[in-house]
Amino acid sequence: MRNLFRKNPGYITVPESSIPQEIPENLWVRCTRCGEMLYVKEFEKNFKVCHKCAFHFRLSARERLELLLDHGSFMEKDEELLTGDPLGFVSLGQSYPMKITDTQRKTGLKEAVISGRGALDGMPVQIAVADFSFLGASMGSVFGEKVVRTLERGLAARQPVVVVSCSGGARMHEGIFSLMQMAKTSAAVSRLAEASVPFLSILTDPTTGGVTASFASLGDVMIAEPGALVAFAGPRVIEQITKQKLPAGTATAEFALEHGMVDMVVHRRDLRPTLAKLLRLYQGAACYAS
User: 10, 59 in Cβ contact below 8 A?
Assistant: First the structure.
């Protein structure tokens, strides 16, 4: 597999003081769950999953696209869409446009979603992937618009749609305009369903808030990565409100599977072949024209 991960590692390397001086510190990474020392090349070869405890580190949107799509097949769409400032929002002396500009500079992204078309095992797909590094992948107007346009392109071309979600919830900087995206994206999914065009929804860590409460939970097939936080509100928020400690494992992908919220929990190494099998099943059922 091509190694895009080295360009955007997305993990914390071990401090030099904690490893032998003769070993370069960028050769190792410590698992944030179990503390296991992981050799970087093996770690990246294993799709950024700990070989000891199977903890799935977060991936960037670009890494997701590299993981799922055929090499060189992705063509980005809607990259010209830029976030506005409908409310004139200011927080701690920083305006919303200033916040967006600063985040764009730090992440190299224009928004929290990258969308476009590509191929998966030779089969055409429309795809949108969220990136948590951009304001927690909060769903604002451009986020929602990119998801809707991806769904509409799938409808127009009768091609399956794959959306990889992660999100901390609604983007408070846009107020009601952010909340409107829940209805907007859900309506687009409904139109896709009426036309019998498949929509595969992948939930990664974390998928919460308005994204969970709208399009991300409306897939024809719901897939989650192991251990991912999947909920409307995270355990800490619920505990703060109810003043009660939640049982261990609540709001995880496995909890969602047990309670019927998702159809399967799939290890990252199996995600691409699983999607390919599902797409072939839909293709065999003539639910869409390739």
Answer: yes
Same domain, 82 and 51: no
The C-alpha atoms of residue 205 and residue 193 are separated, in whole angstroms, by 26
Q: CB of 123 within 8 A of CB of 283?
A: yes
Number of domains in the chain: 2
Same domain, 50 and 71: no
Contact between 63 and 44 (Cβ < 8 Å): no
Question: Looking at the structure, do residues 47 and 102 belong to the same domain, yes or no?
Answer: no
Q: Distance between CA atoms of 211 and 164, rounded to whole angstroms?
A: 11
pTM reported for the whole predicted model: 0.88
**Token digits for 141?**
């107007």
Domain range for 38 is: 1-57
Judge if the upstream peptide bond of residue 206 is cis by omega within 30 degrees of 0: yes
DSSP output for 90-112: EETTEEHHHHHHHHHHHHS-SSS
Mean pLDDT taken over the chain? 90
Assign residue 234 the CATH number of its domain.
3.90.226.10
Integer Rg of the chain from CA = 19
Contacts of 240 (CB under 8 A, 6+ apart): none
- Identify whether residues 127 and 147 lie together within a single domain: yes
Q: Evaluate whether 186 touches 215 at the Cβ level (below 8 Å).
A: yes
pLDDT in tens, 167-189: 999 999 999 999 999 999 999 99
| Region of poorest pLDDT, from 13-17, 47-51, 201-205, 271-275 | 13-17
